[in-house]
Amino acid sequence: MHRRLLVCALALMLLAGCSSAPPPPAKGTPAFYWQAAQETFAAGDYRKANDHLEQLTKTNNEFSDRGLAWRLVVCSGLLRGALDFAEKFEFGARENKANPTPFRKQVNDMRSLAANYAAQLLETWRKMKAASLAEVSLDFPFPAGNTAEVPALVQVSRGILIPPAEIDSAMKLAFQRGLVLATTKAAGAEDAAEARSRFATRPVKVPGPAFRLAVAESLYEASTLFDSRRLDRPDVMKTLLSEAEAALSEAPEGKRKKDLANKIQEALRKSSRKS
Fold first, then answer.
1. Which contiguous run of DSSP H or E holds residue 136?
2. With contact defined as beta carbons under 8 Å apart, do 77 and 179 qualify?
3. Per-residue pLDDT averaged across 32-60, rounded?
4. pTM flag (> 0.85)
5. Rounded to an integer, what distance in angstroms lies between the CA atom of residue 86 and that of residue 112?
6. What is the b/e burial string over 155-194, where b = at least 16 CB atoms within 10 angstroms of the residue's CB?
7. Domain boundaries, the chain
């Protein structure tokens, strides 16, 4: 009898302890989307994390500044992954002259997705640049993966068509690689190993001018999708190049800035001659 009472008392104590835990964030609130983005990003579902960050950054809230910086990095990484994926299939179409059609379909589908990420990148940057950028907080875990080429995409670039299941896996790895590269740039690190070590302590604080340099590089990279060889949208290309140039104007001096400025000017000259 005493033992049963003791068990009941312990159960009541456990229930009381559970009831005192803070409730989860209400669905649809900024806190909900912030937590959801953290969970999906940590799980490697970067596209879903981007969806949560999109909802989070629609309003001004306590997570806005960190959310915009995070989304810029995510959009940059997804864009980089999509461009690389499309490029490898474009190479494959040239190599596999006997059956280029399935390769070209992947190129078209992925370039369409990349254009969507380019638009999101531009939209997010326009929201963020209006705020103070003396210092940017990167408050998210360093993405899994590394910067090595995706083996399946290397095969594709040689004209070898891989099965649909491998295509899906290669796409995920391409996005993962893109996120590693984008996060490394955003953190102002020399390589992924250095960036990963910085993310051992969060948030990672990045000087505003250094972050602007990373943004300018991403905007320039996005502009290449719209050149005459790819989607042929000179109007969109010029817009992205102009935004890249403006972001670059406040970046720190150095070789990266100088090289990028030359690339932007050359691209603007070419687009002007063809318009």
1. strand 135-138
2. yes
3. 97
4. yes
5. 10
6. bbbebebeeeeebeebbbbbbbbbbbbbbbbbbbbeebee
7. 29-207
